């Protein structure tokens, strides 16, 4: 019998299948793990081993990532054979609506909620978002002193939370309840039971709100979803899952981009100065695209199951195998972005895949972009002396969450 | 050059509107609509960007 201790990762043969996810280098919190970079240099696809011992394909290059995410032979259905799961799913846990479905049902459900996220409708919300951002900065500046405060708590999380609550019609007074539960739902170290319980708590709450909107509709997205139940187009269960998806997606993503983006800019003072001193909305918009490209918070990759054999990148992915498109490394592909590891807010980064690609590409992206433009275009101008109030080494990064970011960001000014 | 849009494929990401606001818009459900199927030469680069970023490959430029 081989000694069990010899089978650990430290003793893996050089040609062994690497484990995914890989550790980041502690001194480079904004860069993808060095092992991912090496795999990308070696080729577009490679097999990796997941937490459950399964061995899906990891797709590291931009072109292959976009091709597969746009391919109808890949499925987002988590029940498909070979689907690479992020963590153990709890038995009976509901699906997170259409992001875990394929067309045509995916398209039918998605189109029910895309209207309010259209570019011009989102643009009409800009003054309201500007007021929210200015109000939160006023509160920071009116505090007892120049910090330190936790920017995540007083700024980064409240902004998207207030906005999505307003859009959906969820009372913001309940934010502590759903922010806490959402945190549990995206924490990889939570047990499946804990995640399931958190998910059921919020789902139960939203189901109650949907019931109220059926009886008494208002001018909000929940009422529009409730109307689909009345019209027989959605079951209560489907409607609740859809509301849950929108509430969660509206929280943890933009909040992490605000906090992590601010930290990245504080660590790149030349880029921060460009942003602080500009009055050009185009440069602010460009900075948003570049930070989306450079940071990439969905660090565990977009995951799919392949339903028919696909020949790509010199390999054949067989039906029933899983694929993981790690867009954070796709966004650092030197074939597409020159000098990809450099943060440069003046570059044209619009072709990044931070929102994914294909039919599942983020539907809230116009809203996320607008919120980030208001934040990045306002915060550093209004608090030009903003600085990190701890050592970079002491910042706790969310390597233990489905969405990457920082747990807290202590700042002063 | 003529722009062709397959609205059935559209996933309402809004990317075409951001890339080429003079050529594309969205309807009440967020689905792309073509404002100008024969855009002036000065808008062609924007249309090409819209084609490159469309996640659903729903836009084409044809020689007609």
Question: Can you describe what's shown?
Answer:
The complex is a heterodimer of chains A (413) and B (64). Chain A has 413 residues and is of the alpha+beta class. In chain A, 44% of the residues lie in helices and 7% in strands. Chain A has helices at 34-42, 62-69, 105-110, 119-123, 126-141, 151-156, 158-168, 175-185, 192-215, 221-230, 236-266, 269-277, 281-295, 327-330, 365-382; strands at residues 45-47, 57-59, 74-75, 149-150, 302-306, 310-312, 315-317, 322-325, 387-388, 410-412. In chain A, the strands form 3 sheets. A 5-stranded mixed sheet of chain A has the order 1-2-8-5-3, covered by helices on one side. In chain A, strands 4-10-9 form a 3-stranded antiparallel sheet. The longest helix of chain A has 31 residues, at 236-266. Chain A is globular and about 60 Å long. With 64 residues, chain B is an alpha+beta fold. Chain B has 2 helices and 4 strands; from the N terminus they run E-H-E-E-H-E. In chain B, strand 2 and strand 3 (32-34) form a beta hairpin. The termini of chain B are close together. Helix content of chain B is 23%, strand content 22%. Chain B has a single domain, classed as 2-Layer Sandwich (Alpha-Beta Plaits), CATH 3.30.70.20. The A-B interface holds A 69-70, 107, 110-111, 114-115, 117-120, 122, 350-351, 355-363, 365-366, 369 and B 11-15, 17-19, 25-26, 28-31, 49, 52-53, 55-57.
């Amino acid at each position: 019998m081989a000694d069990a201790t010899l089978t650990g990762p430290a003793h893996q043969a050089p040609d062994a299948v690497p484990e995914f996810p890989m550790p980041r280098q502690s001194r480079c919190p904004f860069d993808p793990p060095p092992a991912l970079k090496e795999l990308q240099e070696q080729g577009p696809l490679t097999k990796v081993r997941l937490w459950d011992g399964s061995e899906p394909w990891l797709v590291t290059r931009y072109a292959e990532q976009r091709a597969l995410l746009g391919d109808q032979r890949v499925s987002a259905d988590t029940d498909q054979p070979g689907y690479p799961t992020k963590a153990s799913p709890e038995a009976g846990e509901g699906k997170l609506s259409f992001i875990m479905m394929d067309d045509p049902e995916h398209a039918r459900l998605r189109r029910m909620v895309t209207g309010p996220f259209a570019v011009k409708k989102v643009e009409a919300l800009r003054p309201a978002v500007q007021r929210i951002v200015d109000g939160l900065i006023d509160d920071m500046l009116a505090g007892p002193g120049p910090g330190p405060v936790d920017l995540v708590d007083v700024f980064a999380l409240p902004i998207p939370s207030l906005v999505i609550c307003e859009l959906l019609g969820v009372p913001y007074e309940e934010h502590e309840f759903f922010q806490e539960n959402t945190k549990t739902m995206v924490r990889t170290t939570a047990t499946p039971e804990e995640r399931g319980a958190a998910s059921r708590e919020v789902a139960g709450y939203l189901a109650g709100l949907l019931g109220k909107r059926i009886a008494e509709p208002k001018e909000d997205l929940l009422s529009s979803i409730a109307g689909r139940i009345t019209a027989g187009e959605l079951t209560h269960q489907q409607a609740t899952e859809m509301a849950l998806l929108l509430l969660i997606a509206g929280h943890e993503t933009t909040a992490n981009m605000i906090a992590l983006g601010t930290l990245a800019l504080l660590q790149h003072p030349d880029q921060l100065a460009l942003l602080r001193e500009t009055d050009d909305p185009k440069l602010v918009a460009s900075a948003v695209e570049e930070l989306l490209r450079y940071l990439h918070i969905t660090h565990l990759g977009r995951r799919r199951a392949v339903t028919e054999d696909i020949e790509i990148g010199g390999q054949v992915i067989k039906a029933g195998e899983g694929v993981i498109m790690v867009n954070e490394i796709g966004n650092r592909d030197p074939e597409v972005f020159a000098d990809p590891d450099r943060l440069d807010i003046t570059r044209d980064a619009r072709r990044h895949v931070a929102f994914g690609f294909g039919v599942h590409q983020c539907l809230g992206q116009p809203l996320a972009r607008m919120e980030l433009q208001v934040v990045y275009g306002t915060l550093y101008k209004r608090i030009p002396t903003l600085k990190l109030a701890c050592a970079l080494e002491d910042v706790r990064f969310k390597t233990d969450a489905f969405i990457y970011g920082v747990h807290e960001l202590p700042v002063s000014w | 050059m003529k722009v062709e849009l397959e609205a059935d494929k559209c996933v309402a990401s809004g990317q075409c509107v951001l890339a080429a606001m003079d050529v594309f818009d969205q309807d009440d459900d967020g689905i792309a609509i073509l404002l100008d199927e024969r855009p002036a030469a000065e808008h062609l680069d924007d249309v090409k960007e819209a084609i490159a970023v469309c996640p659903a490959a729903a836009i084409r430029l044809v020689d007609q």
